[in-house]
UniProtKB/TrEMBL annotation:
Originating organism: Dichotomopilus funicola
Identification of the protein by name: Uncharacterized protein
Oxidoreductase recorded as keyword: yes
InterPro entries according to UniProt: NAD(P)-bd_dom_sf, SDR_fam
Molecular function via GO: oxidoreductase activity
Protein family according to the UniProt entry: Belongs to the short-chain dehydrogenases/reductases (SDR) family.
Length: 285
């Protein structure tokens, strides 16, 4: 029997890991698909356009350009509204887009961009797609690209249980992030008060915590976050020469989106090392 066509939404596909994910989907290896391939510009990457023109894309995969800017709530809502108009369901949402200002002292504007993109915008997109994911016949999945930088081992012991509380509410998580933002923005004492030095780490820890809340509130879906490893992209290259290719970096997110993960939801996945090239396993956040 022919496999049914699934609908996937992938963010930040113009370069890096997002492009590697898109190319894997375009190859047809994950089955028949309609893919909403989102970039800030709203255009498809050149390599995908060329493959489409040369009819090299898999005939069972339809890739549609989509516009998304995670710092603009109207852009998030417009993407969800467009997909709801064109499709009855969404099967997979891969939140790959993210930003990393790799410096300890960053401007307030860069800190705001980091928290808006990696935390608030990404979780707003999840919320916007929940009704469509709930209608998936194959069981809707969300994969949030997080980072080992967001693991709680980098946070002071008194902060860790506040992120990990099993009944953590959205208001409490937002309050935690605002507490960090005030310490960093207004007083500059975030490190003395137990926070890691980089806003990126806080944004990804908050994304992991938001992933747990979403999974708890939506038991019919599989919602996980992961670290793709240390990958040779514009973002990963800021910290030195990364050991992994973008194709290797795409493995864990693709496994969580399409592979057999049983009923695992609300967990953080990674390989044991950031150089590891496996499909990851559940790790302590
Ligand atoms: N590379 C690594 O070693 C590594 C390690 C751990 C986690 N990660 C995570 O993996 C994901 C992909 O990273 P990457 O290494 O592939 O990074 P990348 O090459 O820098 O690509 C980042 C992507 O995110 C998009 N983006 C950034 N801000 C956005 C916004 N406000 N709205 C919409 N899209 C936005 C970018 O679009 P533009 O081109 O328009 O800026 C780009 O497509 C990120 O979430 C990152 O945190 C990466």
């Amino acid at each position: 029997m022919a496999q049914p066509t699934r609908v996937a939404v992938v963010t930040g596909v113009n370069r890096g890991i997002g492009l590697a994910i898109l190319r894997k989907l375009a190859s047809g290896s994950t089955g028949p698909l309609v893919v909403y391939a989102s970039t800030r510009a709203g255009t498809l990457p050149e390599v995908i356009i060329t493959e489409q023109q040369q009819q090299q894309s898999h005939p069972d995969v339809k890739i549609l350009p989509a516009q998304l800017s995670l710092t603009e709530p109207t852009s998030i809502d417009a993407l969800a509204a467009r997909v709801a108009e064109e499709q009855t369901t969404v099967d997979v949402l891969i939140n790959n887009a993210g930003v990393y200002h790799y410096r300890e002292r960053i401007s307030n504007a860069d800190r705001t961009e980091t928290l808006e993109t990696n935390y608030r915008g990404t979780l707003r997109l999840c919320q916007a797609f929940l009704p469509l994911l709930a209608r998936s016949q194959s069981g809707g999945r969300i994969v949030n690209l997080s980072s080992q930088a967001g693991r709680l081992r980098w946070f002071a012991p008194q902060l860790r249980p506040r992120f990990l509380a099993p009944d953590l509410a959205w208001e409490q998580l937002d309050a935690l992030v605002r507490e960090y933002d005030s310490a960093a923005n207004a007083r500059g004492d975030e490190v003395q008060t137990g926070w890691p030095p980089m806003a990126y780490a806080v944004s990804k820890a908050a994304l992991n915590a938001g992933t747990r809340i979403l999974a708890r509130e939506n038991p019919g879906l599989l919602i996980n976050s992961c670290c793709p490893g240390w990958v040779a992209t514009d973002l990963g290259g800021q910290a030195g020469p990364p050991p992994k290719t973008p194709e290797e970096g795409a493995r864990i997110p693709l496994h969580l989106a399409f592979g057999d993960i049983g009923k695992t939801s609300g967990r953080y996945w990674a390989n044991d090392s950031t150089a590891g090239t496996g499909v990851g396993k559940v790790q302590e956040p």
